[in-house]
């Protein structure tokens, strides 16, 4: 039996409040929902971007996804933070297939410099 999805409604007055509220809702959802093949949307310059993050085996990293249009890898940590790093599709494949995802992240992805998304 399938469970009904939860619906989150956020009422705001300004675009800045809406973006902040969306981030809060996404952080709440990512902390409570298993990723499996969860799709997370975020606001970038007024457009919605969808990045599919898949779970990985790591003590620090919950899931990894790739945004092919921006050539970025999105890393979600167990603490709920999501960071994006510049990376090609080949780098993303090597990252998620590495014997140690955490070690690969610290040696190859993190030095590229990232930006926190959520």
List keywords for this structure.
118 residues, six-stranded antiparallel β-sheet, alpha+beta, single chain
Structure at a glance:
With 118 residues, the chain is of the alpha+beta class. Helices cover 30% and strands 30% of the residues. Strand 3 (61-67) and strand 4 form a beta hairpin.
Shape: globular
Which series of helices and strands comes N to C? HEEEEEHHE
> What Rg do the Cα atoms give?
15 Å
- For the secondary structure, the number of strands is 6
Number of domains: 1
Class derived from helix and strand content: alpha+beta
The portion of residues assigned to helices is 25-40%
Give a short account of the largest sheet. 6 strands, antiparallel
Portion in beta strands: 25-35%
Instruction: Name the average pLDDT.
Output: 75
Low-confidence stretches: 8-12, 34-44
**Count of helical segments?**
3
The order of strands across the largest sheet is 1-2-3-4-5-6
Distance between the termini: 32 Å
Structure, explained:
This protein has one domain. It contains 3 helices and 6 strands, in the order H-E-E-E-E-E-H-H-E. Mean pLDDT is 75; it is low at 8-12 and 34-44. With 118 residues, the protein is of the alpha+beta class. The radius of gyration is 15 Å and the shape is globular. It has a 6-stranded antiparallel beta sheet. Strand 4 and strand 5 form a beta hairpin. It is 30% helix and 30% strand.
